[in-house]
Write a structure and sequence with these properties.
This protein is an alpha+beta fold. It is built from eight helices and four strands. β3 and β4 form a beta hairpin. α3 runs antiparallel to α4 and α6 packs antiparallel against α7. The two termini are 19 Å apart.
């Protein structure tokens, strides 16, 4: 279900569609915003175990489908498996999901960037060229507002949907 919602959004991305997609990801049974997929997948990729890495990603893809890093990892899998067209498609999805993340807010407290995977905050900060010096967070209902501040006291805000807790 969610993969068809994602495919529909990817073929005609809108802010509203992205917001609906984020909510669909949160509702997934295997959703866990704190899962650090790369820590499990990168060692397999480094060992050349591309098919196993791909299976590991695909087992949780419904909860990571909007994560740019997930698409980057899948691109590496497809490169290693000798599937350049699929790798190219995953790189496009990586760019699309990062653009969507950065256009869904402006990083201010009133319009934070919404994320469903904690590691996406750090990937977005890297794309923004923002080097955080401090980090703080506070709960807002079921969500967590994450605030990063640099040495010049500039701030970037993220709203971690679901508060980083796994779905019930």
């Amino acid at each position: 279900m969610i993969l068809s919602v994602f495919e529909e959004w990817a073929n005609g991305p809108t802010r509203h569609g992205y917001a609906e997609l984020l909510n669909a990801v949160r509702a997934e049974p295997n959703y866990d915003a704190t899962r650090h997929l790369a820590s499990h997948v990168v060692p397999l990729l480094d060992e050349g175990r591309y098919a196993q890495a791909e299976r590991l990603i695909l087992d949780v893809i419904t909860a990571h489908v909007v994560s740019p890093a997930t698409h980057a990892l899948l691109a590496r899998c497809h490169d290693g498996l000798g599937e350049p067209d699929r790798a190219r498609d995953e790189r496009r999805l990586m760019e699309l999901t990062m653009q969507a993340l950065l256009h869904a807010g402006d990083g201010s407290e009133k319009s934070p960037y919404p994320v469903v995977i904690l590691s996406d905050e750090y990937d977005a900060l890297a794309v923004l060229g923002f080097e955080p010096l401090t980090h703080s967070s506070r709960e807002i209902g079921d969500d967590v507002l994450e605030v990063f501040e640099d040495a010049n006291e500039r701030k970037v805000h993220f709203l971690l949907l679901g508060g980083g807790r796994a779905a019930p």
